[in-house]
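Run log // design_07
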């Protein structure tokens, strides 16, 4: 995660102000314009850490939730939790070194390449897992006979494949990243010699496989599920025409699932489209490379990845009950010790007072 922009030659296509070499200082410093973006990413990371931590804790403590669908949600929560941890760590490092008066070039490269690689690895893993969840829902609702072939062993193979494949693209792209000498901007190098034709082609392939295809698959699959549920709801209405209560329950169940799928489709599409468009702009012409603009555009993608597991799990009543129990249990354990001592002292005092009164 980065919070500033790489200086490059001004173009007429992208009228964004950049610092010139004469305006830069000797050390990397956080600019005033970076503060809102820094706060935004910090809040998203903290919220995502809490949401994904609760999701993992609830899944781990409740064996009844250990289905294939929920295990995919667990994989999604784990990926988002790792991303949130490294995002928070990067914010702390940047704030610390900004106060201490600078950062060495070696440490800057480590923070830039390593942390950004891990964060984008987790984002790609989330996208792959979301696609798998959509397909699992499709086969579970529309093709239940095919869904029986999804065994825990095959799920393990998929998880291993998803983790390895999601790491390839960020590892390759990290070689093209650098942190500016005077700011904390960490993004792709805008130099033309760093982007030969084969790298541009590879970039389009990666963008298509990592973003465009998953977006199309998730949208089409959820639309098919919604159409299937509406057709099944009409058949249920005909079958339960003489039983108004059964008909009402069937309608509620169908409408609830349809609303959830519509919400997921809209949120996923709206959050991913800006980043897809900007990546396409960069691959079309590298003069569009600007880290400050990119990380503003990437806020919706990071936000949706932080709260994704919560959106899926809150629709499950079993998960909601288990989460409420876990939170209540934790709140009881962290009750202040002073409160317990005060209660004991008050009881003892009352008992002593009553004995004196009796005498």
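design_07 sequence
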């Amino acid at each position: 995660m980065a919070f500033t922009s790489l200086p490059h030659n001004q173009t007429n296509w992208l009228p964004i102000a950049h610092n010139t070499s004469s305006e830069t200082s000797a050390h990397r410093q956080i600019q005033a314009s970076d503060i809102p973006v820094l706060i935004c990413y910090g809040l998203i990371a903290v919220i995502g850490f809490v949401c994904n931590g609760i999701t993992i804790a609830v899944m781990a403590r409740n064996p009844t939730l250990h289905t294939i669908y929920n295990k995919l949600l667990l994989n999604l929560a784990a990926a988002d939790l790792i991303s949130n941890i490294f995002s928070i760590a990067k914010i702390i490092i940047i704030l610390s070194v900004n106060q201490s008066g600078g950062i060495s070039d070696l440490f800057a490269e480590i923070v830039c390449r390593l942390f950004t690689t891990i964060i984008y690895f987790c984002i790609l893993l989330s996208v792959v897992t979301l696609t798998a969840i959509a397909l699992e829902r499709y086969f579970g609702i529309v093709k239940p006979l095919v869904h029986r072939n999804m065994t825990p062993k095959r799920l393990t193979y998929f998880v291993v494949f998803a983790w390895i494949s999601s790491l390839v693209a960020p590892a390759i792209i990290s070689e093209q990243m650098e942190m500016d000498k005077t700011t904390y901007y960490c993004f792709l190098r805008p130099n033309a010699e760093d982007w030969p034709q084969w790298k541009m082609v590879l970039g389009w392939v990666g963008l298509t496989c990592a973003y465009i295809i998953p977006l199309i698959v998730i949208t089409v699959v959820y639309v098919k599920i919604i159409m299937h549920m509406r057709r099944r709801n009409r058949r249920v209405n005909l079958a339960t025409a003489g039983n108004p209560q059964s008909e009402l329950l069937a309608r509620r169940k169908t409408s609830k699932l349809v609303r959830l799928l519509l919400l997921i489709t809209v949120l996923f599409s709206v959050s991913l489209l800006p980043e897809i468009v900007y990546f396409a702009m960069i691959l079309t012409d590298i003069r569009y490379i600007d880290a400050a603009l990119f990380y503003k555009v990437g806020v919706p993608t990071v936000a949706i990845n932080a709260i994704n597991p919560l959106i899926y799990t809150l629709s499950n009543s079993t998960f909601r009950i288990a989460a409420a129990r876990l939170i209540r249990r934790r709140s009881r354990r962290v009750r202040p010790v002073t409160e317990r001592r005060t209660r004991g002292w008050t009881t003892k005092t009352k008992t002593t007072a009553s004995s004196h009164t009796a005498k």
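Strands lie at 177-179, 186-188.
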